[in-house]
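Running low. Any example?
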Amino acid sequence: MLRTNSSDSSFRKQHLNPADLPNWSESFSQVVIVQTRDTRTIYVSGQVSVDAGNKVIGHGDLGLQAEAALQNLSKALAAGGATPADVVRLRIFIKEYHPDQAAVITSALQKVFIAGQMPANTWLGVASLALDELLIEIEATAVVDVSG
């Protein structure tokens, strides 16, 4: 579903809930796009390892869950007209994080983002996520130049 707020002509705001992502539209939008004349900023809600049918992928496996969350992130970005190369900021929430898990998360990130051009990134260890089975959640902000 697409919702647009055009009350201010200096920018346009859209709320997206792509069909190939879990549908939690009663709680939040998966993607919010703010477009000005020259720039489209895409805000992606925290993506997790849940398929479009709301089934958890990779029970107990941080690596599989990170990869699935990043696949969902790529789908969300595409819905907003962006790619992982447009991402400027990530926030990663890891359930009961331990530093020895860093290599698994870094490996998953390196499959999606270009080495040497990684987005700004904050990792946060948390006690829990929205569903007990989830181990990682990744949110992003992307910026696309639309002036050309």
Observations:
- The chain has a mean pLDDT of 93.
- The chain has one domain: 2-145.
- The longest strand covers residues 136-145.
